[in-house]
Specification:
heterotrimer; A alpha+beta (about 280); B alpha+beta (about 775); C alpha+beta (about 160); A: Uridine Diphospho-n-acetylenolpyruvylglucosamine Reductase, domain 2; Uridine Diphospho-n-acetylenolpyruvylglucosamine Reductase, domain 3; Enolase-like, domain 1; five-stranded antiparallel sheet; four-stranded antiparallel sheet; 11 helices; about 35% helix; C: about 160 residues; alpha+beta; DNA polymerase, domain 1; 2 domains; 5 strands
Chain lengths: ~280, ~775, ~160
C-alpha cells in the first residue's frame, strides 16, 4: 500500500443533485469515484494524484436499467453484474452482456460500473466496442442541465474525453434497432479470464438479399481510443461476403488500425489478430 | 502392534488445515508485537554503476525515522550462501536494479512510501550486462584486455560464478564416434526467468536486544539459513540468532535464500531503532526485487544411429545467475546432472556455466535447474526422432535407462526402474495414439489445431552427492506435558504438507493416532537442524529420521517405562508422563546416516542422488489459428515415487506443480527493461487462473526406495520438469512448427506461423548425416 | 476522518478512519479480522475477497466510506458457533487448501458461487473462481471441494 490514506478525502453526497452542485461549485476539485476498481488500484500503487474524491457509489439515480419499446437506457452506475443479470440486456444487447462477462473477475464485476469503464477512457476497456457498435448515445448531466452526445464523439484523444469538469455521465441509451442483426464479439486477452484486452472486436451486421445492408464494428486496443472501424465498414457496405471483400476489408482495417507495442503485446500481433477476428466474423455470416 | 493403524498411505486432514479454512492461521503480516515499527527499503533505480550522492529531502521529518546504511552493519556486509559476494546493503557499487541501498523504519506504515521516494540518489551509470550473450561477450572482451563488461569476479572467473565439466566415465567423446554416426542432430533451447508468485509476499518481523541478540519471525523455508546469515551480519553466535518460521503462504523456492536478505534488513532496523520492525513487501516490490528462476540456454549435439540409438551427446548449458552468486552453483549442478535425462548414453559430456548479469540475483525455484535442462532434452529427443524418422515413443524406448544400468554420472540404478512400462501406461491412460491419429485427421480442416505430446524424465530427490552427509540432519521427538509426542524439526510447512506427512510417519512409527502427534513450530531455539526444506528431501530424508526417532521413542518407553505391547493412546501418554516425572526429560533423536553412496565433487561422478523418481507426462494442446494462442486442454501425469504417503497431498503436489509448469511454458514471461522487471504486477505477469488450466489427471506407481520414510521418494519438484517439454512437443504436433523457447506466447506463435522465417517441415529422408539448427 | 458504520459478521461496528482507507485495512487493522489478506493490492488475486451486501468484492478496492451501512461477511463469519460450514469442511477433506493464503477468499468466492448456482457446472465453478488465484493447488482439488460442498448443501436441504 503505497499511499498515505490520511492525505485523501472522500465525500459521499446522498443525492445526484448534491453531487452535481458540489462539482459545479468546486470546479475541478473533486474527482468522481464509483466502484473503485480503477482508482483504488492507483491508490494502492501510490499514483492516485487527485486527493479529493467524491463517491458515486451510493447514488441510486445512476444505478438503473430502463427498458422501453424503443430503447434501453443504462445508468452510469450500473455494475457489470447488473448488466449480466438483466434479461433484456442479455437478450437484446448481447455484445454488451458478453463484454460484461469478461470484464475482470466476478468480484470486479460486482463493483465496476459501466460509467467508470467509459469515463476512465482506456483504449482497452471492455464495454466501448459494443457501445460503439450499438451507436450508443450518452447523457451527460451537470448542475445546470443535461445534454446528449453520440458515444462515438466522446473520446477526443488518449484518456481525454468530452466530459466537462462539472459534468457526470448520467446514462447510456441504446436504441432497440438491432433485431435481425447478426452479432459477433470476441476479446483476445493474455489468458481466459481476468485479462486486459490485447485486441477486441464487437460487430453487428444485417444481411439483405445476400449483401451487407448494415455493418458496425467497434474495436479495443487498435488506437489510442476505443474505435469505430468506419473505413472497414465502408469497404463492406453493400457488398456480399466473398474472399475478395474479406481481403479488402482486412486491408481497410490496416489503414485505420494503429496498434502499438506495449507490455502486453505487439502492434503486428494486434493488427493481424484484429483482421482474423474480422474474417472470422464475416465468414460466420 | 495394531495393524489397522495404517496411517501412511491414507489421507488424514491437514494438520493445520482447520486454521487455514477458518482464517485463523497467522501469517507474518497478521502478527503485531508491542511497540512494533515498520520498515522499508530504498533501492537502486539503475542496474549498474556507482552511487555519487544520497540526499534526504528536508520536507520529511527524518528525526522520526531510523535510517540504516551499510555502515551500521556490525559484522560483515554480506548475505552468505556459498560465497560472500552478495552485499546486504550497497555501499557505492550497484550491480542490479532494485538493489537495496538503505533502510528506513517508522512507527507508521503509511508514511514510509513517501519517505522512500524522498531519498534522492544520484549515480554514475555504467552500461549493464543483461543477458547470457552480453555476459559471454564481456568475457571474450576481457580475455582481450577490455574488462569494461566484467561485473563479477576477475581473470578466469570473470562473470563466471561456476563451471562444471561432467564426462561419463571421465572420457571425452572419441572423434570417430562423430565421424561414423549416421546422424548428428544439433539444437538450441532457451527458457526464461519465472517468478515464484507465492500469494503471500515476503515478510518478517525482527527484534533485537543487547542481551538476547536477534530474533526474526517470518515467512520462510529454511530457518537455519537465516540464522547463518544473521551470524555473519551481526557477528553473533548462532545461539543469539533466533529464527521462528510463521505460517507461510507459499514458497516454491522463493523463500529459500531470499529470507536471508529481508531478515537481515529487518534485524538491522530493529537493532538501530530499538523497536521490533516488520518488513512486508507489497507485490510490486516482491516481484521486482526478489529471486527468480534462472534463465537458461542449452545446446545439444547428439550422434545417433539410424536405428535410433543414442551414441554420444555433448550438452552445453548456460544459466543466467543475476548479479550475485547466491545458489547458482547448486542450480547449475542439478541442471548438469539432469541434462542427460533418463537415457543410456555411451558417451556424454556436459559443459555448464553460470554467468553473472546485472539482473536481481536469481535463486531457487522448484526444480532448481532440472526444468531448464529437461526442457531442452525432451524437445531435442523429439527433434532427433523427427530427423531420423522414428516416432517420439520409439526413440525413447530404444534408449531408456533400466534397472542395473548406470546413469551419465556412473550411478548404478540398483532400485527397480521400468520406463518402458511407465511410457506404455502413460500413453494408454492418455489415449495418446488414438488422439494423435484423430488430430492428424481433423487439423487439416479446423481453425483450432490440436496436438498431443509427451516428456519422459526423472528427478533426483535430496541433496546432491555428499550434500546430505554435510547437512548432517538431526530430528528430535519429545513429549508435551500431557504425554503426546511432539516432532522437533526445522522442516517447514508452506502448503506442501510437511506437518501432515511427518505426523503420519510418526504416528505410524509410534502406533498412535494421527491426531495425537504435535509438530512444534520451527523455532531455532527449540528445534534441531533437520536441514533446509528444499530439494524434495522432506518426506524422504527427514521423514525417515522421524520414523527412526519415533521407533526409538517406543523402544525407550518399552524398555525403561514399561510400555506394553498393543498399548492404547491413553496408555502411551500415561507411561510418557510417568517417565517425564521420573527422569525430567523424554526425548529421542535420529541423525542422518549416509548410506554407502560415493560422489566425487570434482570429477562429477558417482551417486548423484539417493533416489530418483521417474515420470511420463502427456499434454494435449489446442492452438487457435485466429489468436495464435496455445492452451493445454488435457494433462496426464504419471510418476513412480516410491511410496505415496498421503494420496490427496501427493496428488495436490503434482497438480500444483503441473499448473506452474503450464505457466512456465505458455503464460509467465518476465519483461526486463534496462534490468528492471517492468511487468511487476499481477495484471501484467500472467499466471493461469482456474479458467486457463485443463483437467490434470494424476497417476502414481510405487517402487519403495530403501532410503525414504516407508519407501517414499521426493515428489515436490518433479512435476515442474515435465509440462513445458510435453506441451511444446504437443504444439509441434499441432502446428508442425518446432518451438525451442519458453515462454511460448501467442505473439511468438504468430511470428513463426505468419512470418517470412517460416521453418520448412523436416523430411528425414533428406536429413543426411549432419543436421543442424543451432543458428535458427 | 470519517465515522463509518457497518455490520461485520452480524455485529454492528463503528469505525473512525480516513474515508479512503481500504476496507481490507479496516478489517485487518481496526477490527483485527486478519482472515482477508493482501496478495496484490490491485484486485487481481482475490485473497482479500469479502462479501458486501451478499456480493463478492475485493476489499482492497473498497474505500471504507463506501461500506457505510453495508453488511459485510468475512471468513471469520462463515463458520457459526464453532461448527465448520460445509464449504470449509469440504475444503479440508478434499485438499482444497495447501498453503492456505488464498483459502479465505476462495471459500467466500465459493459461498457466493453456490448462492447463485446451487449445483454449478464445472464451467460455472471455473468462472466463479477465476478471480481467486491459487499458486499451490492447480485448482483441481478446489473444484472437487466446491462440487462436494454443493452436494452437501443439497443433502442438508433434503433433510429439512
Amino acid at each position: 500500500m503505497r499511499s498515505n490514506v490520511s492525505a485523501y478525502d472522500l465525500i459521499a453526497p446522498r443525492t445526484l443533485a448534491e453531487t452535481l452542485l458540489t462539482l459545479s461549485e468546486q470546479l475541478g476539485i473533486y474527482t468522481p469515484i464509483a466502484g473503485g476498481t480503477e482508482l483504488m488500484v492507483a491508490l494502492g500503487a501510490g499514483r492516485l494524484a487527485p486527493k479529493k474524491l467524491i463517491s458515486l457509489w451510493g447514488l441510486t439515480e445512476l444505478r438503473f436499467i430502463d427498458v422501453t419499446a424503443d430503447a434501453i437506457t443504462l445508468g452510469a452506475g450500473t455494475t457489470f453484474t447488473d448488466l449480466r443479470k438483466h434479461p433484456v440486456v442479455s437478450s437484446n444487447l448481447s455484445l454488451l452482456s458478453q463484454a460484461a462477462s469478461w470484464t475482470g473477475s466476478i468480484a470486479n464485476q460486482n463493483r465496476g460500473t459501466l460509467g467508470g469503464n467509459i469515463v476512465n477512457a482506456s483504449p482497452a476497456a471492455d464495454s466501448p466496442p459494443a457501445l460503439l457498435a450499438y451507436d450508443a448515445e450518452l447523457t451527460l448531466v451537470s448542475h445546470t442541465g443535461s445534454r446528449t452526445l453520440p458515444y462515438v464523439d466522446f473520446h477526443l484523444g488518449y484518456k481525454k474525453t468530452a466530459l466537462r469538469p462539472d459534468e457526470l455521465l448520467h446514462s447510456v441509451t441504446i436504441k432497440r434497432n438491432f433485431g435481425g442483426y447478426k452479432s459477433y464479439t470476441r476479446k483476445v486477452g493474455t489468458r481466459n479470464a481476468q485479462a486486459i484486452s490485447k485486441v477486441a472486436l464487437a460487430a453487428l451486421a444485417r444481411i439483405e438479399d445476400g449483401v451487407l445492408a448494415d455493418i458496425r464494428i467497434g474495436a479495443a486496443s487498435l488506437r489510442e481510443v476505443p474505435t469505430r472501424l468506419t473505413a472497414t465498414e465502408k469497404a463492406l457496405m453493400g457488398k456480399t461476403v466473398s474472399t475478395e471483400t474479406i481481403a479488402a476489408a482486412r486491408a481497410a482495417l490496416m489503414t485505420e488500425a494503429r496498434p502499438i507495442d506495449d507490455i502486453r503485446s505487439t502492434a503486428k500481433y494486434r493488427g493481424m489478430v484484429a483482421g482474423n477476428l474480422l474474417e472470422d466474423f464475416l465468414r460466420s455470416l | 502392534m495394531d495393524e489397522s493403524n495404517q496411517l501412511v498411505g491414507s489421507s488424514p486432514i491437514r494438520k493445520e488445515g482447520r486454521d487455514k479454512v477458518t482464517g485463523r492461521a497467522q501469517y507474518v503480516d497478521d502478527l503485531s508485537l508491542p511497540g512494533m515499527w515498520f520498515g522499508a527499503t530504498v533501492r537502486s533505480t539503475i542496474a549498474r554503476g556507482r552511487i555519487t550522492s544520497i540526499t534526504f529531502d528536508p520536507l520529511i521529518p527524518w528525526h522520526e525515522f531510523t535510517v540504516v546504511t551499510a555502515k551500521d552493519i556490525p559484522g560483515e556486509n554480506a548475505i552468505v550462501h556459498l560465497a560472500k559476494d552478495h552485499v546486504c546493503l550497497a555501499e557505492s557499487t550497484i550491480n542490479h536494479c532494485d538493489e537495496p541501498i538503505l533502510l528506513l523504519a517508522h512507527p507508521e506504515r503509511a508514511v514510509l512510501h513517501a519517505a522512500v521516494a524522498s531519498v534522492k540518489i544520484t549515480y554514475d551509470e555504467l552500461p549493464g550486462v543483461f543477458t547470457i550473450e552480453d555476459s559471454e561477450t564481456a568475457i571474450e572482451r576481457a580475455a582481450q584486455g577490455d574488462t569494461s563488461g566484467v561485473i563479477w569476479g576477475k581473470g578466469a572467473d570473470a562473470n563466471l560464478f561456476k563451471t562444471y565439466l561432467m564426462q561419463k566415465d571421465q572420457k571425452p567423446i572419441p572423434a570417430d564416434v562423430w565421424e561414423t554416426a549416421d546422424y548428428i542432430v544439433e539444437g538450441e533451447y532457451r527458457t526464461g526467468a519465472q517468478e515464484q508468485l507465492y500469494i503471500e509476499n515476503n515478510g518478517v518481523i525482527a527484534e533485537y536486544s543487547a542481551t538476547d541478540g536477534v530474533t526474526v519471525r517470518g515467512s520462510m523455508q529454511c530457518p537455519f539459513y537465516l540464522v547463518h546469515a544473521l551470524e555473519v551480519i551481526f557477528g553473533l553466535p548462532a545461539e543469539r540468532c533466533r529464527v521462528i518460521q510463521t505460517e507461510t503462504g507459499g514458497a516454491f523456492g522463493g523463500k529459500e535464500d531470499f529470507p536471508s536478505v529481508i531478515g537481515s534488513h529487518a534485524a538491522l532496523l530493529a537493532m538501530k531503532s530499538g523497536h521490533p520492525v516488520k518488513i512486508c513487501y507489497d507485490r510490486a516490490e516482491d516481484m521486482a526485487g526478489t529471486t527468480k528462476r534462472h534463465p537458461s540456454r542449452t545446446r545439444h549435439r547428439t550422434a545417433v544411429s539410424k536405428e535410433g540409438k543414442l551414441l554420444a551427446g555433448e550438452i552445453e548449458i548456460a544459466l543466467d545467475g543475476g548479479a550475485y552468486m547466491t545458489l547458482s552453483p547448486v542450480v547449475l549442478s542439478r541442471a548438469t546432472i539432469h541434462a542427460p535425462g533418463p537415457y543410456h548414453w555411451p558417451y556424454m559430456v556436459v559443459r555448464a556455466k553460470a554467468l553473472a548479469t546485472n539482473i536481481p540475483p536469481h535463486g531457487a525455484f522448484r526444480g532448481f535447474g532440472a526444468p531448464q535442462t529437461l526442457f531442452a532434452l525432451e524437445r531435442h529427443m523429439d527433434k532427433i526422432a523427427r530427423v531420423i524418422g522414428l516416432t517420439p515413443e520409439e526413440l525413447r524406448r530404444r534408449n531408456f535407462l533400466t534397472t542395473g544400468d548406470r546413469t551419465a554420472t556412473g550411478q548404478l540404478l540398483s532400485e527397480p526402474v521400468d520406463m518402458q512400462h511407465m511410457l506404455t501406461r502413460a500413453l494408454t491412460e492418455s489415449d495418446y495414439h488414438a488422439k494423435r491419429a484423430e488430430f492428424d485427421r481433423t487439423n487439416a480442416t479446423s481453425a483450432i489445431k490440436r496436438g498431443i505430446g509427451f516428456a519422459t524424465f526423472f528427478h533426483g530427490a535430496g541433496f546432491t552427492g555428499s550434500g546430505e552427509r554435510r547437512l548432517n540432519s538431526l530430528v528430535e521427538i519429545d513429549v508435551t506435558a500431557e504425554g503426546w509426542p511432539r516432532i522437533l524439526v526445522s522442516s517447514t510447512e508452506f502448503g506442501q504438507g510437511t506437518n501432515t506427512i511427518l505426523s503420519q510417519v510418526a504416528a505410524q512409527a509410534l502406533q498412535l493416532p494421527y491426531e495425537s502427534i504435535v509438530v512444534a513450530q520451527p523455532d531455532t531455539l527449540l528445534v534441531p537442524n533437520s536441514g533446509p526444506t528444499v530439494a524434495s528431501r522432506t518426506a524422504m530424508v527427514v521423514g525417515r529420521l522421524v520414523q527412526k526417532a519415533g521407533e526409538s521413542l517406543r523402544t525407550k518407553l518399552r524398555d525403561a517405562g514399561g510400555l506394553r505391547d498393543g498399548y492404547s493412546a491413553a496408555e502411551f501418554c500415561a507411561v510418557a508422563v510417568a517417565y517425564l516425572a521420573k527422569y525430567g526429560e523424554l526425548k529421542t533423536s535420529a541423525r542422518y546416516e549416509a548410506p554407502d553412496i560415493f560422489w566425487d565433487d570434482v570429477l562429477y561422478t558417482g551417486d548423484a542422488y539417493p533416489a530418483y523418481a521417474w515420470a511420463v507426462y502427456v499434454a494435449e494442446v489446442a492452438v487457435d489459428t485466429i489468436t495464435y494462442s496455445a492452451s493445454v486442454t488435457e494433462f496426464h501425469a504419471l510418476q513412480e515415487v516410491g511410496k505415496v504417503l498421503h494420496p490427496i497431498l501427493a496428488a495436490g503436489q503434482i497438480e500444483g506443480g503441473v499448473a506452474q509448469g503450464i505457466g512456465y511454458a505458455l503464460y509467465e514471461k518476465c519483461v526486463w527493461q534496462k534490468g528492471h522487471m517492468a511487468n511487476n504486477q499481477m495484471t501484467n505477469y500472467i499466471m493461469p487462473t482456474s479458467a486457463d488450466l485443463p483437467p490434470i489427471h494424476v497417476y502414481f506407481e510405487e517402487t519403495p526406495s530403501i532410503h525414504g520414510a516407508f519407501g517414499a521418494k521426493g515428489i515436490g519438484e518433479l512435476p515442474m520438469d515435465g509440462p513445458a517439454p510435453a506441451i511444446l512437443n504437443a504444439v509441434e504436433h499441432a502446428t508442425g512448427i518446432a518451438f525451442t523457447q519458453i515462454p511460448l506466447l501467442p505473439e511468438d506463435i504468430f511470428e513463426r506461423m505468419t512470418g517470412d522465417n517460416q521453418q520448412p517441415h523436416f523430411d528425414a529422408s533428406i536429413a543426411g548425416p549432419f543436421f543442424s539448427e543451432v543458428g535458427a | 476522518m470519517s465515522s463509518v458504520q457497518f455490520t461485520v459478521n452480524g455485529e454492528k461496528k463503528t469505525i473512525d478512519a480516513p474515508p479512503m482507507k481500504r476496507l481490507l485495512d479496516v478489517l485487518r487493522e481496526d477490527l483485527h479480522l486478519t482472515g482477508a489478506k493482501e496478495g496484490c493490492g490491485e484486485g487481481e488475486c482475490g485473497s482479500c475477497s469479502v462479501l458486501m451486501n451478499g456480493d463478492l468484492v475485493n476489499s482492497c478496492l473498497v474505500p471504507v466510506l463506501q461500506a457505510s451501512g453495508a453488511t459485510i461477511c468475512t471468513i471469520e463469519g462463515i463458520s457459526t458457533e464453532g461448527r465448520l460450514h460445509p464449504i470449509q469442511q469440504c475444503f479440508l477433506e478434499h485438499g482444497g487448501a495447501q498453503c492456505g493464503i488464498c483459502t479465505p477468499g476462495m471459500i467466500l468466492a465459493t459461498h457466493h458461487l453456490l448462492e447463485k448456482y446451487p449445483q454449478p457446472t464445472l464451467l460455472q465453478i471455473q468462472e466463479g473462481l477465476a478471480g481467486n488465484l491459487c499458486r499451490c493447488t492447480g485448482y483441481m482439488r478446489i473444484f472437487t471441494a466446491v462440487q462436494e460442498a454443493a452436494l452437501a448443501n443439497a443433502a442438508a436441504g433434503d433433510l429439512r
